[in-house]
UniProtKB/TrEMBL annotation:
Membrane topology, from the record: Multi-pass membrane protein
Pfam family membership, one: VTT_dom
Subcellular location field: Cell membrane
Protein name: Alkaline phosphatase
Segments crossing the lipid bilayer: 12-30, 50-70, 140-161, 176-194
Keywords per UniProt: Cell membrane, Membrane, Transmembrane, Transmembrane helix
Length: 201
């Protein structure tokens, strides 16, 4: 699969990088920990430019966040709270949890979006609280761009330096993603066991 991905990215060029990064944010079939080091490797060979790869990847990353953002915005806090009233047990969310979480996000949304874009496993889904909290689109795009730019720059730079060993980047980052996912799963199980429904104030 890797050889096919290299061939396809070489032929598709910057559009291919942008498309893969957009898909990675919608539903990560191929993680950015593989895409960006590979793009850096191709840039190191002189087939693409560093600036072009970074720009394409960041545009793709930010564009890929918008469907989740708008889906959450259309869903809205009221509908989510109504859903939590009926199915909160399995969501492990009460309307009080939702109100409290959105209140925190409205105060610290800038930091949460920027930092969230740098965390494997959850970076694709930080768009959801941003949409629910109705963060202005301009701010969301700005903060997502900053976080995505830093993330993409780090991964691409590693692939550029490592060249033929670009796949080592994914090998080191993959355990971090697994730890984050395990933490999310364990937190969910713990909340499921001890969940108590709290009425909305």
């Amino acid at each position: 699969m890797i050889e096919q991905l290299i061939t396809w990215m070489q032929s598709a060029g910057y559009w291919g990088v942008a498309a893969l990064m957009a898909l990675e944010n919608l539903f990560p079939p191929i993680p950015s920990e593989l895409i960006m080091p590979l793009a850096g490797f191709i840039a190191a060979k002189g087939q693409l430019t560093v600036a072009g790869v970074l720009a394409a990847a960041t545009v793709g990353s930010v564009g890929g966040t918008l469907p989740w953002f708008y889906t959450a915005k259309m869903l809205g806090c009221t509908r989510l709270c109504d859903f939590a009233d009926k199915h909160g047990r399995w969501l492990t969310l009460s309307t009080h949890d939702i109100d409290r979480g959105l209140s925190v996000f409205r105060k610290h949304g800038r930091k949460m979006v920027i930092i969230g874009r740098l965390v494997p496993a959850i970076r694709s889904f930080i768009s959801i609280p941003a949409g629910l909290a109705e963060m202005p689109l301009g701010r969301f795009l700005l903060y997502s761009t900053i976080g995505s730019l830093v993330w993409n720059m780090g991964l691409m730079g590693a692939g550029y330096v490592l060249e033929d060993h670009y796949h080592e980047v994914a090998r080191y980052i993959d355990p971090i993603a697994k730890i984050v996912l395990a933490f999310i799963l364990l937190t969910y199980i713990w909340r499921l066991i001890f969940f108590r429904k709290t009425p909305r104030s």
